[in-house]
Amino acid sequence: MPSPDRQRLPNRRLCLTDVVSWHGADWLLSIGFDHGGRVREVFLSGPKCGSEIEATLADACILVSLLLQHDHEPAALLDRLSRDPVSPEDPAASPIGLVLERLAAMQASGAEAAREAYAAAAALGRLAS
């Protein structure tokens, strides 16, 4: 259930970055986690720095991140977005849809890798508690 209170992120936190493709273009997707291994922020960088689409996606990622920090579920957000063409089985109609697909898949798998990475980083003293 969404929370009216924003979950403040720790100053030092795990961030995973991967390349995702949408309509033939490669994008860098960075996913930030809280100390519990929950996804709390996303960033998406496009193939052309300074473009209007990159600015639009940066703003959209800020909004998605704020929703995640208020405990909205990625899968619930994804259900509200457009599909190409219209079926839930069809691919995302936008890069933000692609981001939410990735987040929902991570959440469905339990984000175990994120929790393990946090435990390893904490053991090395790399993260503030």
UniProtKB/TrEMBL annotation:
Write the lineage as a comma-separated list.
Bacteria, Pseudomonadati, Pseudomonadota, Alphaproteobacteria, Rhodospirillales
List the InterPro entries: TSCPD_dom
- Please provide the Gene Ontology terms (biological process) for this protein: DNA biosynthetic process
Give the catalytic activity: a 2'-deoxyribonucleoside 5'-diphosphate + [thioredoxin]-disulfide + H2O = a ribonucleoside 5'-diphosphate + [thioredoxin]-dithiol
Similarity annotation: Belongs to the ribonucleoside diphosphate reductase class-2 family.
Organism from which the protein derives = Zavarzinia aquatilis
Quote the EC number.
1.17.4.1
Q: Tell me if Metal-binding is a UniProt keyword of this record.
A: no
Residue ranges annotated for the TSCPD domain, each copy included:
23-83
Provide the GO MF annotations for this entry: nucleotide binding; ribonucleoside-diphosphate reductase activity, thioredoxin disulfide as acceptor
This chain belongs to the protein called ribonucleoside-diphosphate reductase
Q: Which UniProt keywords apply?
A: DNA synthesis, Nucleotide-binding
Question: Can you tell which superkingdom this protein's organism belongs to?
Answer: Bacteria
